[in-house]
Structure formats: structure tokens, C-alpha cells
Amino acid sequence: MSLETLLPAAIVVSSLLPGVFIFLVKEESHILRGVLNMAGALIKLVLVGVMIWGVYQGETYETRLTLAPGLDLVLSADALSVLFVTLSTVLWLVTTVYAIGYLEHSPNRSRFFGFFSLCVSATVGIALAGNLLSFVIFYEMLTLATYPLVAHRGTPDATRGAKIYLAYTMSGGVLLLVGAIWLQAITGPVDFTQGGYLEALSGDLQGPLVAIFVLLLAGLGIKAAIVPLHGWLPQSMVAPAPVSALLHAVAVVKAGAFGIVRVVYDVYGIGLADRLGLLTLLGVLASTTIIYGSVRALYQDGLKKRLAYSTVSQVSYIALGASILGPIATIGGMVHLVHQGIMKITLFFCAGNYAETLGVHKVSEMDGVGRRMPLTTLAFTVGALGMIGIPPIAGFVSKWYLGLGAVEADAHWVLLILAASSLLNAGYFLPILYRAWFRPEPDAWPKERPSKGRFETMGALLWPPVVTAGLCLIAGLLAAAPFSPLEWAALIARREYL
Amino acid sequence: MDASLALAVSVPLIGGLLATALPKRAQGLGLLASVATVLVVGWVMAGVWQQGSLHAELGGWAAPLGIALAADGLSAALLGMAALVALGVGIYASGYFRSADADRHFWPLWLLLWAALNGLLLAADLFNIYVTLELLGLTAAALGALTGTVDAVRANLRYLLVGLLGSMTYLLGVALVYTSYGTLDLGLLSNALEPGPVAATALVLMTAGLALKAALFPLHFWLPPAHANAPAPVSAALSALVVKAAFYLILRLWLDVFAPVVTPSAAGLMGMLGALAVIWGSWRALRAERLKLLAAYSTVAQIGYLCLFLPLLQALPPGAERDDLFVALVLMALTHGLAKAGLFLAAGLVQRSAGHDRIDDLGGTAQHMPATTFTIALAGTALIGLPPSGSFVGKWILMTSALESGQWWWILVIAIGTLLAAAYVFRVLSRAFNLEPTPRSFVTQARTEVPALLLALTSVAVLGLAADPLWRLLGAGGGA
């Protein structure tokens, strides 16, 4: 029992334990609940800080629990898992603050925050999972923990959305399970290995390996909302804003994308995946999704729906990065894992603020919101411009590296996809910005909350998007600084292509 | 001579007799006897853990004459699961029955059932197995009819008759064995047994009788009404323990005593029936209108899962892989026992609070009882086989073995069964989300809610994450 063996488990437990206690907290004790929430989030942040430093120094952390002979639950830290853990932890902290403000007077908060914590524990577990078995375990736990969050409001719409969500993710879970078991039956118990561990298998297993990849990809693609498996995502927009924010930026969608990255790099190895023709499959699917999602986003009037389709499109950049052979594209995909997260969470926070403060749910109602809520709209603008890929915001860095990587790998068609997607992004984000800043305010907002305090809305709702928008700018401006997402992604790529 | 084996049977028996003699103190005596039995079972398990297996002859008479008791890893594991479930059921029952009359009738029968169950798990010869099996069936049917409603009496009368038919068929097989081999002791018999028509016929007869009692598809018809109409603590015991006891005997016969007689096609047939049970039971559970009926059909499906192991155990050569598969089978059985007990106990609370258990009208009730809804969710996780439950580990090993022995088609059955199970579990859970007012606290009645929650939690967290010792317990003296 030392720091090296305890730290990964402690990072998972630091949100699991508060989650369990929150269920037991009486509904009206919001202070106790808030303390539990924040204590968990801060302790996790500190632990993750220790882990980042250690992994940077080349330290290894591993918690191993034997479930059965040959079946180990492994939590371990490599550069890739640290990237995702850090993203989850930081955004969880911000989202918790936001959620406490957002749900101030709504019912069933103990249930909500309990599952919220379980959801983050599962996400962190996915990030730290050291083999396929552990990944599957946390992946399924994530499904279980998010279902109550989607269904939280209890309206018929919410129940329906949750049902669709469950039907998709459960089926995905079964496919992933079968794929994982099949692979393990071939290889025996093997941990994720940088550079992949299937390279050594002889050529006569090509057929099964391709079939297994398809199974895994289908299972992961459902959560990652790859077309045509994305149907649940717009439906689950009925969830409260903090849930949508977390689902889109960190938890569910990102878990799927992260899983694809893991399978391509650390199970198959990118070289083998390329030789088996799997990268082409992934690239085509990702490109289709990028274009399809953006086109559908153009036609949505509901702000959250538009953002949802934008997620469908943007998350596939990560898969696209993984589908191009070459370290630079890898960097682009990996760094987008973080950049998409901070940009999308900003946008969802802002959407939630408009809905909570003014009752604005639709793009067509957003005329003049910039004057009524300048800080929120400023944050929204940063997020939206970042999504389009305008420098110096984070999204530009991702697209730049993806484009460079494509050129390096002679995959020039990717540039077309990137260009088309950026145009489409501009097509659905710029009109919102135009309305918000340049159209006159309406006489009355759909449902304005009486405001108290100096700011445009309550502090717990206002500061989270401002902070994350700041992160988007910093990640772009200081991309070359040590410990920036870009530098970390480069570290991962160096270790993958050794 | 190990006293712990005899005590494991006699302590609940004496408790039951005392509860009959002093009906006014039945509850106190019953709980006391329950705790004592749990301690004795712990002692048995510790013995098996250290020595691999235990053996005792009552009165000092050796095998062909006296009554012998034996415990190996398999019986110790099931004994332990039964003790946990029984303790939970007992505590729950002490807060569940509203009328003093029901409470008074419950305890003697309940302790008698427990004694019979322990006797069955420890019995070392075929005739004692028959006696305990009969006793188990009688007490179970009597307990099931405890509510006294017409439906309950009718269902349990049928249960009783089916049970008698089952044990008669079994007895016929036993008679056949005795006439040809002159012994009923399991150990002596497995040495003497030779493959041939007599042994095969005996196995078929005994298996048919036991399959009827274990509600193996298509002999499951009696189970849903009997289990759904019994009082909640009794349903829990029936589904978690009584059905498992019959399945335990099938395992004993197929893997241990009659192992040389079993052919791949016979094992394949059991697997086939199991597959049909998984699909049919899950489908009926999905269509069930009442929560307890859903739980009962899910038991039919779960027995089916256990049968899927038989063709694979038959196909694998003896070795580490087969041992793993065998432990996985036991792990699934244990997980199901704990989870199903939790589910039935929770269903009883829902039924009592709402006045009915029609799933479509459950609305507010589920939301009012967070602890109970949680119990259903945890038990449901184990029934679906999602991580981190014990059945997830069990299924993982089962599916791996299916692939490695080339019988990949069972995987399709498991995948379909898993999705159907998810559908029926979440059909119930989705009722917990609606616009009813927020419940004030997590637990409303600790005495009934906590045992149910702990049983379900054990099936998920303990058996899923800390099942490794089971390998040692079974590896030491497992039947495989």
C-alpha cells in the first residue's frame, strides 16, 4: 500500500464516497450537501494534481484488484488517462458550482447530486481503466449513473428521452462486452499498452480482429454519437442544463470518443489498425458524422438542440484525429478531447443561463440578449468562435493540428472536411452571435426571473461559463506553454509513436 | 466428527420447535435462532475454508448404516448465501407482518424450512436428500399459503402437488440406484457407478424430478403464481433458496456422482432448455403486469442461465479453465440468490405502501421510497448482469468459455437475455421518476428496508468486486 498503488483508486473514490453519502442527506440540508460536493471535487483536484506531476516525471500509478483469476480490475495512469482525468475533474468542479446554483429551488436534489457524483466517478474510472475489462465495467456504470440524470425532471418527455438513451446505450454496452470478451478470449488478460498489443498476433486472425473492431466501434460509437448511432443524443436534451453540459463535454459522449482512441492506439496500435484498413472505416464514419451533425445543427431552432447536433459533429474530430496515421493528427485529435470539452461546456452553461434567467430556449428568441446579459454572451461568443476555429481560441489549435496531420499523411480529403465543417459551424453559430449582439432587445423576455445582486444573473450561474471561456482562451493563447493541453497531447503522441 | 455440520441443521430445527412451543415469543426466539444459525454456518464455512471438506457421521455409525453429513466448497458457499438471505428475511419479517397471527405461524415454518435447506445442502446420501427435499417442499408450500387468500392457497396447493410429483419421480430414480448398487451414499456411489442404461435411467428420473422443483423450462409453469402470491419474505426465500436447492442437487448429480454417465448431448439438451428459459422467462417478465410476477419470471430466466453452464462444463477438459467456469456458475447462483431476495423484499414494501403491485400504476410510490427503489435498482443490476455485480463476472467467464469451447451460440442467448432483462428492470425503475413531491429522507422504515438494501448491495458490490475468495473456498473442495 503506497501512493503509487492507492492514488488511482483514491481519485475514483473521492467522488464515489461523497456520492453515496449525498443520497442519505436529507433533502433540505443544502449546506451539508454542498460541503460534501465541494469537498469531493476539491480533494479530487488535489489528487489529480499529484498524479499529473508524477506522470510527467515518468512515475507509474496502478491499483489492481483481482475479481477472479485472470480478471483484474486495473486503474492505472498514463499520459492519455491523465489528460481525460484532468478534464473531468476540472469541469466537474465547475459544473458542480453551476448545478448548485441552477437547481437552487428544484426538487430531488439529493438524488440528483448523488447520481451526479457517481457519474463523474464512472467517467474517471473510464479514464483510468487499465484494460478492456475495467473499461467495460466503468462504461456500463456510466450508463447506469446517467440514466437517472436524464430522467431527472420526471416529465413524460424526460422519461421518454431517458428510455431512448437507455435503449441505445444498453445495446452499445452489449456489443462492447461481446467484442471485449472475444478479444480477451484470443489474447488472454492483457493491459492497455502504449503502441497496442495485437501487433504480435499472426496474420490468420485478421478476420476476427476486424470483426472485433467493428463490435467495439459500434459499442463505443453509440456513446460517441457517431452517425448513424447518434439518435439518442438530441432526445436526451430534456435533461437539466448542467447534465447536458457534463454529458456533452465530459461524461458520456467523450467517454465514447475516449474509448475509440484507447482501442485504436493502446489495443490495436495505430500501425496495425491502418494495415487492417480499420482507420479508413473510422475516418469515413467520423467525416460523415462531422458533416451530418453540422448540417442538422443549421436547421435547429432550439438552442440546446443546435448545440447537441454541434456536439455530434465536433466529437467526431477526435475520432478523425485517431483515424489519420501520424503523430501530428494524433495530437490534433487528443487535444480536441480537451478543447471540445471546455468550449462545449461553456456553450451549455450559457444556454442554461439564458433559459434560467430570461426563459429563452430558442435561437429565434435570442435577439439582444447580449445587452441584457453581456458577460454570459461574451462567454458564449468565445465558445462559439472557438468551435468555428478562429484563432486564438482553443478550437483553432485542434483544427490546425488536424489539418497539418492530414497533409503530413497525404490525406488531403480531410482538409476538405475541415473546411466544409468550419463553414457550416460558422453558418450555425454566427447568426446566433449576430442576433445576440446586434438585434434590439424585445419588450419583454419570455420568462424573466427577478434579478437580485449586481450582475446579470446569480453568481453561481455566471462565473462557471466565464471561467471556462477563460480556459478556452488560455488553452489557445498559451498552447505552447508547459502543461497546456497541446503540450500534453504532444507528450502522449511521443509516447504512442515511440 | 465435526459438530458444526450437525449444529447447522439442528439449531434452526430446535429454534423452530421452541417457536412452536412458545408462540408468544416466536419472534424473539426466531431471531435468536437465526443469529445462532448464521454463526454455526460461519463455523462450517471456516472449517471448509481450512480443510477443504468436512464429514460427519451422526451417532458414530459409518456410511451405509448411519446418517452422514458432508460439506464441500459448493455446499459451504450455498449454505453461506442461504444464511445471509435467511437472516435478512428474518429481520425483514419481524417488521413486515402486521397481524400477530401471521407472525406466529411464520416463524416455526420458516425455521423448519431453513433446517431442511441446511440438511439438504449437507446431506451425503440420496435418501436423506429425498427426506430434506420433501420437508423443504412441504414447509415452502405452507409458508406460501400464509396470506390465506384464495389465489395464494390455490397456487400453493398446485405448488405442493407439483413438488410431490417431483420428489416422487426423484425417489423412483433413487430406488433404481439402490436396487442395482446397494448403496445411497454419494461417495460410495460415485465410486461404484458404471455408465449403462440403469444409471442413465436413474439420472433421467432424478433430474426430471429435480427440474420440476427447480422450475426449469418447460416445467416452470407452477412457479410464477406460487412465488408471486406468497407474502414477500416467503417469496424471497422461495425464489432465492428453495429453487436453488433443487438446482444444487442437479449440479451434485451431474458434476459429481453421475459425471461418468453424462453425455455431451444430454448436457447440450440442458443448455438448450436453459436458453429457452432465459428467453421465455425474460420475455414474460417484460410483459408481466405485476412487480412480484415480474420477479418470479425473472427467476425462471435466471435458472436458465445456470443451465447454460452445463454443456460448457461438459465440453471443457478438467483443469483451471473448467474450475473457473464452475466457480462462475456458483457465483451466478449466489448473486442471483441475494439479488432476488432483495428484489422480492423490496417488492413487498412497494406493494404494502401502494396497496398493489401493478407496475404501470406505481408512479408516486416508487419515488416516495428511495431506499426501496435503490434496492430494486441494485438487484436489477445484478439480474441484468451489469458491473459491478457478481453476475457480470459470472457472465464474462461464461461467455469466454463459450467462445473458447467453440459453442459461440450461447453468447447470442446471453446477449438477448441481457437486453430483455435491462428492459424489464428499467420498466420498473422508470416509474421512480415523475413529478411527485420529494421524499424527505432516504429510509422510511429501517427494519424492513435496510435488510433488503443490504442483500441487494451484497449481490452487487461484494460478490462483484470481492469474489476472489470464492475460488479458494471452491477450489479447495469443489465438486468440479
UniProtKB/TrEMBL annotation, chain A:
Transmembrane ranges, per UniProt, are 6-24, 36-56, 76-100, 112-139, 165-188, 209-233, 245-264, 276-295, 315-338, 378-401, 413-437, 458-481
Q: Where in the cell is it found?
A: Cell membrane; Membrane
Please name the InterPro entries in this protein's record.
CPA3_Na-H_Antiporter_D (IPR050586), ND/Mrp_TM (IPR001750), Proton_antipo_N (IPR001516)
Which keywords appear in this protein's UniProt record, sorted alphabetically?
Cell membrane, Membrane, Transmembrane, Transmembrane helix
One Pfam match, by short name?
Proton_antipo_N
Q: Does the keyword Cell membrane apply?
A: yes
Where is this protein chiefly located?
A: membrane
According to the entry, every stretch annotated as the NADH:quinone oxidoreductase/Mrp antiporter transmembrane domain falls at 129-422
Q: Which GO terms describe its cellular component?
A: plasma membrane
What sequence ranges are listed for the domain NADH-Ubiquinone oxidoreductase (complex I) chain 5 N-terminal? 72-113
Topology in membrane:
Multi-pass membrane protein
Family per similarity comment: Belongs to the CPA3 antiporters (TC 2.A.63) subunit D family.
- Stated name of the protein: Monovalent cation/H+ antiporter subunit D family protein
State the species of origin.
Thiorhodococcus minor
Q: What is the lineage of its organism?
A: Bacteria, Pseudomonadati, Pseudomonadota, Gammaproteobacteria, Chromatiales
Automatic annotation (TrEMBL), chain B:
Ordered alphabetically, the record's keywords are:
Cell membrane, Membrane, Transmembrane, Transmembrane helix
Please verify whether the record's keywords include Signal: no
Q: Where is the NADH:quinone oxidoreductase/Mrp antiporter transmembrane domain?
A: 123-420
BP-aspect Gene Ontology terms? ATP synthesis coupled electron transport
Q: Which GO terms describe its cellular component?
A: plasma membrane
Instruction: Write out the transmembrane intervals.
Output: 6-22, 29-49, 61-94, 106-123, 129-147, 159-178, 198-222, 234-255, 261-281, 293-313, 325-350, 371-388, 408-429, 450-467
Which InterPro entries is this protein grouped with? Answer: CPA3_Na-H_Antiporter_D, NADH_UbQ_OxRdtase, ND/Mrp_TM
What Gene Ontology molecular-function terms does this entry list?
NADH dehydrogenase (ubiquinone) activity
Where located?
A: Cell membrane; Membrane
Instruction: Identify the main location.
Output: membrane
Q: Which PANTHER family match?
A: NA(+)_H(+) ANTIPORTER SUBUNIT D1, NADH DEHYDROGENASE
Q: Which family does it belong to?
A: Belongs to the CPA3 antiporters (TC 2.A.63) subunit D family.
Q: What is this protein called?
A: Oxidoreductase
Organism for this UniProt entry: Thiorhodococcus minor
